[in-house]
Amino acid sequence: MTRDSRRVVITGLGVVSPIGIGVARFLTGIRTGRSGVKKITSFDTSGFQYANGCEIDDFVAADWIRRVDPDDLGRASQFSAAAARMAVADAGMPTEELRRRRVLVSVGTTDGESRDLDTLTARQLDAGVEKLDGRTVRRSAAGRLSSGVIRELGLTDVEAVTIPTACAAGNYAIGTGFDALRAGEVEAALCGGADAVCRKTFSGFYRIGTIAPVACQPFDRDRKGILTGEGAGMLLMETLESALGRGAPIYAEVLGYALNCDALHPVAPDLDSLARCIALAHRHAGIEPADVDFISAHGTGTRANDVTETGAITKVFTRPPPTISIKSMIGHTMGAASALAAAACALAIREGFIPPTINHNVTDPECGVDCVPNEARPADVNIVQNNALAFAGNNAVLILGRYRDGTAA
Amino acid sequence: MTLTLSAWSALSPYGLGREAFTAGVRAGRSGVAVLDREAYPGPFDRAGLVPDFTAAGHLGRKGTRSMDRVSALAVVLVRQLLEEIGADAVADSDEVGLVLGTGSGSVQSIMDFTAASFTGQKPYHVDPALFPNAVMNRPAGQCAIWHRIRGPNATVAGGAATGLLALSYAARLLRGGHCRRALVGAVEEYSVQRAWLEWHARAAGVDAGDADQVPLAEGGALLLMEAPDEARRAGRSPVATVLATRFMAFDEPDQAHAVLANCVTAALRSAGVAPEEVEVVVPLGAEGELGRQEERATAGALGGTAPRVLRCRPLLGDASAASAAFQIAVLLATARPYGPRDTGIGLVTTVDPHGVVGCALLRTAPGPAERAPTSRASGSRDG
């Protein structure tokens, strides 16, 4: 089989999200427009005038993590390990089978084990730097988000890489898994992203005025910003040949992706550069703009992001397709964001609907997109574009399609 | 698609640039020195610092006010490589990717930022200009902005294996058609915070006895990776060909040697290289149990052959996430012939305490003295 004919499909999803753990609950959540917003409790929020977020309060690590002592993993690594377990089970692939294969595990993140780093900082201030807990220090390494997955699954013939390219990292991780499978380098790829709510990121975004007091309202005239969230999304990907060979149901096909960098500003996005990335992704995937049935936007709900992003979309699309943001429901889960969004896209393709943008009152005329306000819309979804933007001007655009027998979607 | 390394540079305890690095390695001189304990209190007396390095000193005052040390090291490292290959190599900048390995960005910047939230009058009294430094992709982003590199910009983390993982990631970018050239490597900064975290992590690890013995190092190495015809078109002669990268994982430390041996054997097989063709090995060379496991693995995989072993730790100390990038640089800095057959084949190995092993197999080009690309600069003008 030549490189070009090797197609890559998603056969398993693992989801730890503020609106539900596991694919079934997540699907119900994005179909019914559930909101994951609540008061932040994971750190002391006194002194902040408001502190809503999208934390996960029903995650019990020991329910999901079997092989590793959960205390050897920080919260983000617990999320990635749990989501990886779920993805493998969801794909109907026995762990033994996965262990026989050559595998790539790639996990994107913004903050790594930021919760542990918060804890260590507090301890250092209280008791002195000599008194840090070695076990917490050891598990706080960013590489642990991917190496934790291989330990939990007992994989041996595996490359584990953590990709800390901030809030676009999930798409980066999925993209590199796609490349590895297409090139015949690996026989399965477990890819996604993970992050945990932390004080550092909350206080940073709060300080620059981008935390919404109550709710996240992407594309709304009255949007006030982001809500920090947490979780993990992991995708099990394999070649089409492999999926067909073992009779696995296919969620979606990965058609291509593109990355580029504005190289302009540390935090502000750039319209032209994002537009270029979208066009690159279309070319890489072999599709035309008119083929896209909906866009899963980065859609953070800040003034700057939503205007810039919809501007870039308008530049590429003569008639922009419905453009939604699941951040309205799950908040900004940082490095997990585009991975969870990719999982939502895969579900949308399989189930035939477009997830809604909730908390929506009046669309900002400056954005001017159909954001599928408040209620999911049934639709025949063939091709979806999943946008991700990150600090440092990084753009990552992923294209997924419905798997069609025989020919490319 | 075979990929070549057609230029490289390093920023290390030997100073700035490829030539300083090569001279230090060939002389077998240690770059580790006594630490200025006023500037760097902490658990270590010695470290491998890049001598006299400051952001403002090497990049000027403009644009460096909020730049942390790891970012400044990365920006200077990229500048050095661009001086080696000429600015026209990034002129078509959408086609150039940057893949930068990191431990956790700057743990100093991250924890200082969080500390400000704890100690300020209000928890949001943090410096917004420093917020990007508290995110791990800041060094890669700074490099992109400073040098206008607009292709894929990725940050990669994986402990001691980071440099090899970056190489593997960059190879996938190139093969996947996401860029035509990739700058790939890793950087670490020395900071008091990193020193303490390393010290505590070692004390809790399998080699606990050595916690304060092995000095830490900073700096990094960066390679230009591209397809051979791309290099040829640009008039660059390859310094090395990447024959294979391979990774595997172990559960318990006493399995590390067997797993790494399998990993090396798999790499040799995929490259079509016989064990006896490997003439030089550049191990991570950690002290204690994992270092012994690594040695045993190489001996096992290479059979009865006795390749030359280049040890980085005595030269540079423990460069953490920059270790493997330095190991590759040490290979490139060493003069051929490595052995009597002069195959030019070198093996770089690593064993990370988090259960990951990895290796890269490279064939360096002959003529080490002429291995500098058709450059117009020495690469060490920053001093």
UniProtKB/TrEMBL annotation, chain A:
Ketosynthase family 3 (KS3) domain residues: 5-402
InterPro entries: Beta-ketoacyl_synthase, Ketoacyl_synth_C, Ketoacyl_synth_N, PKS_Beta-ketoAc_synthase_dom, Thiolase-like
SUPFAM superfamilies for the chain: Thiolase-like (SSF53901)
Pfam families in the cross-refs: ketoacyl-synt, Ketoacyl-synt_C
Entry keywords, A to Z: Transferase
Family: Belongs to the thiolase-like superfamily. Beta-ketoacyl-ACP synthases family.
Listed name of the protein: 3-oxoacyl-ACP synthase
Organism: Phytohabitans aurantiacus
Lineage per the UniProt record: Bacteria, Bacillati, Actinomycetota, Actinomycetes, Micromonosporales
Gene: fabF_2
Automatic annotation (TrEMBL), chain B:
Record carries keyword Transferase: yes
Domain Beta-ketoacyl synthase-like N-terminal: 9-227
A Pfam family matched in the record: ketoacyl-synt
InterPro entries on file: Beta-ketoacyl_synthase (IPR000794), Ketoacyl_synth_N (IPR014030), Thiolase-like (IPR016039)
Keywords noted in UniProt: Transferase
Record-linked SUPFAM superfamilies: Thiolase-like
PANTHER family with a match to the protein in the record: 3-OXOACYL-[ACYL-CARRIER-PROTEIN] SYNTHASE, MITOCHONDRIAL, POLYKETIDE SYNTHASE-RELATED
Protein name according to UniProt: 3-oxoacyl-ACP synthase
Species in which this protein is naturally found: Phytohabitans aurantiacus
